[in-house]
């Protein structure tokens, strides 16, 4: 049963629209059929008392408040949703304990250890690098990370449409949160990260994932992300410029 359908659950999500980590949580909520949550947009230059009280350690979004109790960090929220609403919508994690361990391994590898951490850091460097060499190095690292994820998809999906198999799951949501930024990257940096010649499996996966009903309305328009990224670029360039 989804929250609100007689269950009395109150859900509030604190986020900031450009954040791929917010997009992860919204994707997971929608895949589980949970759409009646309250979304609160945070101004990260002037964080609300609610955000600071809800996440006093990191003071970051996203935060999910379930009946007033905060759950912080996107991947923690994803696992919490699976535990708190096990019968709602799509299961994010498989039922088999070994398969669950494999899914958690790949997400930990992707997010915390190598792939997405390297990918996102490289991505920021390629967008915000103050020299052409820095930008080129960032792009090279981002493309290498995606190449590794191409191999991971082949291993995890076993020829099926998603990392999790027939239906999207934990790894799909973890990586899927980046899709809006991946599409904006080509406009801002002039490089198509999702290129069918380099990563055909990921390109096909991205199209399938973005076409899901659960993804509708989650990702900002590409132009919005581009304008936000360009503003960050200008900010970075101004702070790097020598003072007269």
DSSP strand tally? 4
> What kind of sheet is the major sheet?
4 strands, mixed
Runs with pLDDT <50, length 5+?
none
Biggest sheet, spatial arrangement of strands: 2-1-3-4
SSE string, helices as H and strands as E: EHEHEEHHHHHHHH
Tally of helical segments: 10
Specify the overall morphology. Answer: globular
Content-based structural category: alpha+beta
Termini distance? 63 Å
CA radius of gyration is 18 Å
Whole-number mean pLDDT: 86
Which percent range fits the helix content? Answer: 40-55%
Indicate the proportion of strand residues. 5-15%
Quick overview of this protein structure:
By secondary structure, this protein is of the alpha+beta class.
Report what the structure shows.
This protein is α+β, with helices and mostly antiparallel strands and 244 residues long. The protein is 55% helix and 7% strand. The chain contains 10 helices and 4 strands, in the order βαβαββαααααααα. It has helices spanning 20-31, 49-54, 74-84, 97-113, 115-128, 132-157, 170-176, 179-189, 200-210, 222-240, and strands at residues 11-15, 38-41, 63-66, 69-72. It has a 4-stranded mixed β-sheet, with helices on one face. α1 links the parallel β1 (11-15) and β2 (38-41). α1 (20-31) packs parallel to α3 (74-84), α4 runs parallel beside α7 and α8 (179-189) packs across α10. It is globular and about 55 Å long. 36% of the residues are buried.
């Amino acid at each position: 049963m989804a929250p609100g359908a007689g269950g009395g659950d109150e859900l509030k999500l604190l986020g900031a629209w450009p954040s791929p980590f917010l997009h992860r949580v919204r994707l997971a909520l929608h895949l589980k059929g949970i759409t009646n949550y309250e979304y609160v947009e945070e101004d990260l230059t002037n964080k609300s008392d609610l955000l600071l009280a809800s996440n006093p350690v990191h003071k970051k979004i996203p935060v999910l408040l379930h009946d007033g109790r905060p759950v912080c960090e996107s991947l923690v929220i994803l696992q919490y949703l699976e535990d708190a609403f096990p019968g709602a919508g799509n299961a994010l994690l498989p039922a088999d304990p070994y398969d669950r361990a494999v899914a958690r391994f790949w997400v930990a590898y992707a997010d915390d250890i190598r792939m997405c951490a390297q990918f996102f850091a490289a991505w920021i460097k390629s967008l915000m690098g103050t020299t052409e060499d820095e930008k080129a190095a960032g792009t090279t690292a981002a493309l290498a990370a995606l190449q590794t994820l191409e191999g991971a998809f082949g291993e995890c999906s076993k020829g099926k449409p998603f990392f999790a198999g027939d239906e999207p799951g934990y790894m799909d949501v973890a990586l899927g949160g980046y899709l809006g930024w991946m599409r904006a990257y080509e406009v801002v940096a002039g490089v198509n990260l999702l290129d069918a010649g380099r990563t055909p499996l990921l390109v096909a996966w991205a199209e399938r994932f973005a076409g899901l009903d659960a993804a509708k309305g989650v990702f900002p328009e590409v132009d919005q992300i581009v304008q936000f990224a360009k503003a960050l670029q200008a900010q970075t360039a101004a702070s790097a410029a020598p003072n007269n």
